[in-house]
Design goal:
three-stranded antiparallel β-sheet, Arc Repressor Mutant, subunit A, 10 strands, 2 domains, globular, O-methyltransferase activity, methyltransferase, COMT-like, protein dimerization activity, WH-like_DNA-bd_sf
Length: about 325
């Protein structure tokens, strides 16, 4: 009986976890954390924000109770992590990215989607742009890329190119182009191409300009599934995009192979799905909303690996980054 009670408690814990998440998202929307870089009183925050002082106090105490902020006597302040990630004064601020991903992956109204099924138009076309706002995603994910994607990429490529440099780099479906831009900065004699659809490409053009790399990094606009992606590349970065080629996987992988020079490198980041679609659970839940809407995109890692090796690639190195799988293939 005691074991059954413990299991029941885990169910009730989910209710608490949901309330904690709701509180966290509300604090982000209210930009609470940006007021708390230094110790500050409720009265001062209320004066600066014009928020209701009574309910502000309740929210701040609740945030402190779950250790998202700290309370020192009658003043509040960010934790070290909160100041680093959740205050807009930090260049590593990820609050907008968290809010966008919560909205993008929301399971609101899941009951009706199960009762009545997916959107027939989305099912028919099976295109990510029908469901996702890739332009906004490219903007808000820039800090995430700098936090988690850049360092492993640069470290690995420095190992591969110890005595030389890549001449031409492609960041395929690269969103903001941050990965390609930073790789070009790491290899100052290289040229880069960011390939993106026209609307999203504006984000990449802006980031290229901010990094003063307009003479070395260009933007190519189009559909990387259907259109020519160029050739003569030494490195192709394909981060989180191969699932979108699901209906044309073998043709797409051949396109990658043909675009590379001899001994060229594919830096491939996938979602690491198992063949039974049970792992990793966090990513499965993250994609669930779009799949309920009608998308059918996810590819198990084994299917991707088989397609790569069947096209002539050899696996050079593999690693993990959180729930993502990093595989480096060589032509």
């Amino acid at each position: 009986m005691n074991n059954k009670k413990l299991v029941a408690n885990t169910y009730y814990k989910m209710v608490t976890n949901h309330r904690e998440s709701q509180l966290f998202f509300a604090a982000l929307k209210l930009d609470i954390f940006s007021y708390l870089d230094n110790e500050i009183s409720i009265e001062e925050i209320a004066d600066q924000s014009t928020y209701d002082i009574r309910n502000l106090k309740l929210i701040l105490n609740a945030l402190a109770s779950i250790h998202l902020i700290e309370k020192h006597e009658n003043k509040f302040v960010n934790t070290e992590e909160g100041k680093f990630y959740l205050s807009k004064s930090s260049k590593y601020y990820i609050g907008d990215a968290i809010l966008f991903r919560n909205e993008m992956m929301s399971l609101d109204n899941i009951e009706n989607r199960v009762r009545f099924g997916p959107d027939k138009a989305i099912t028919q076309h099976n295109q990510g742009q029908k469901v996702y706002n890739f332009t906004k995603l490219a903007k808000v994910s820039i800090p995430e890329i700098y936090l988690w994607r850049i360092e492993p990429l640069i470290n690995l490529m420095n190992t591969i190119y110890q005595d030389s440099e890549p001449n031409k780099i492609l960041d395929l479906g690269g969103g903001s182009g941050a990965m390609g831009i930073e790789l070009c900065k790491a290899f100052p004699n290289s040229k880069g191409v960011i390939f993106e659809e026209p609307k999203v490409s504006l984000v990449a053009e802006d980031l290229i300009s901010k990094n003063n790399l307009s003479t070395r990094v260009s933007v190519q606009k189009g559909d990387f599934i259907k259109d020519d992606i160029g050739s003569g590349y030494d490195i192709i970065i394909a981060s989180g995009i191969i699932d979108f080629a699901k209906d044309h996987l073998q043709d797409f992988v051949k396109k990658l192979y043909d675009a590379l020079n001899k001994n060229g490198i594919i830096y491939l980041i996938t979602h690491g799905f198992s063949e039974d679609y049970l792992e990793p659970s966090e990513t499965i839940l993250g994609w669930l909303s779009s799949h309920l809407d009608g998308l059918n995109l996810l590819l198990p890692d084994k299917v991707i690996q088989d397609a790569m090796t069947d096209s002539g690639f050899r696996l050079y190195k593999q690693d993990k980054s959180g729930n993502h799988s990093i595989k480096v293939y060589q032509k």
